[in-house]
Specification:
heterodimer; A: about 260 residues; alpha/beta; globular; B: about 260 residues; MetI-like fold; 10 helices; extended
Chain lengths: ~260, ~260
Amino acid sequence: MSSTHAAVDRSNFLEIKGLQKEYVPGNPILKGIDINISEPGIVAIIGPSGTGKSTLLRCINRLIDPTAGAILFDNADLSQAKGGELRKLRRQVGMVFQEYNLVERLTVIENVLTGRLGYMSAWQAWRRKFSQEDINGAFELLEAVGLSEHANKRADSLSGGQRQRVGIARAVMQNPRVLLADEPTSSLDPKTAVEIMELLERFSEEKNIPALVNIHDVKLASRFAKRMIGMSNGVVVYDGSPEGITDEHLKQIYGGESWLD
Amino acid sequence: MNTMNHQWQRFTLKQKLSRYAVYLVLIMAMVQSIQSVEVIPEFFFDAPEQMADMFSRMWPIDFAYYPVTVHDAMIETLNIATLGTLVTLIFALPLALMNASNIVASPWVHWIARFFLVSSRSVNSLVWALLFVSIFGPGVIAGVLAIAFRSVGFVGKLLGEAIEEVNMGPIEALRATGASWMSVLLKGYWPQILPAFFSIVLFRWDINVRESAVLGLVGAGGIGVVLSDSMNLFEWQRVAVALLSIFAVVIVAEIIVVNIRKRLI
């Protein structure tokens, strides 16, 4: 990336305080989450399906509105932001999705460039008036994820692993101060999954930002994470180093023990 | 061992009875319609002879008449159809957006959009044409507006449904980048509905070519005027030219539409 997209150095990236979410009143899926992200690097969030991991990530960039609590980010409470202010905060939060969520009929390079939409008007977007800097940045990112030769192919002609690389490039294209990845490897084979995690690790180091990654695979998580957060039934039950997580913790997070070897 | 005989019937007695009731009503409706139509047997059995007579009067087809009047009228018909389809878009696009539940959540807006879409469709284009002929006088403008007003309901409804079938994943992803509502519309929705958009618009244009050929019958310009004049003057050889050119244009339109669509998807 060019020099103007230099990595930011911040002591406190993201602070989540007492976050609650109820889809059905009286039936909370998140029961008061407190997480303080103060260091760059991968933060793996593990926990069984339906425990609110996705909801947590989606609350951070407000694809889902939280019921209560605060999300402090860049001197603002994201949970209260509206309209233009919300969009300005959103563009600093890059998100990677399980099913990639590329616009399939657009080319690979244009998908990467959509990461800049938050910085331009609809009129500019319509005429595809991306700045030269953005276009250079997009090609550099495609090179970094190893898809240079696919730039002008349609996104739906790529394989799953390739699409996820494009998804990551799009998120990084936002020049974000935090990356969120919702099960980025669940639809991929084990080798590709490792490659995707390596990419996330690389970008979080290069840009000196944290990456919150929801992930099923505990082994894969502990291999890459600097910090692990274990969730169960809508509360955080473990928050610490990957080394510190024991079978006892895993039993508490996932329940049962027959799956442990 | 005591084996049980399972009873199985496709329909319960109540269902059977209601099905027979529906059949009975259908038959009664049929009988009733035939009675009220009052088919005159002489005219009915006479039809093949009359048809043969008409075709014989159409022959030989008066091709010399084509450059005189039919050609210009045909071009006018195509202009009415094309212009009418373009005017349609001005109204149909906003109505389609208003009608799509994944774009506008308010049920009030849906009802307003639906009101206009249904009104447009509930009136036949011939009736729209009669209305506009009485407002603007006979001519092309009445034809264009008649085509446009009838097509808004068709295009708006189908386009709204196409928007509702969009994959919401990419939309969510674009919203997450901080893109504005309009940018999400342009970069998330539009690429996904583009094939549907062109099939719908081209299909409507294809229908409009045929419809505008008829509109002339009520004075709204185009080939229909020529057709109706020739019929009134019993110039069947000229009627044949007009009919033949409509047929040719529809075939050509079909070929064009199919080819454009192939390239777009």
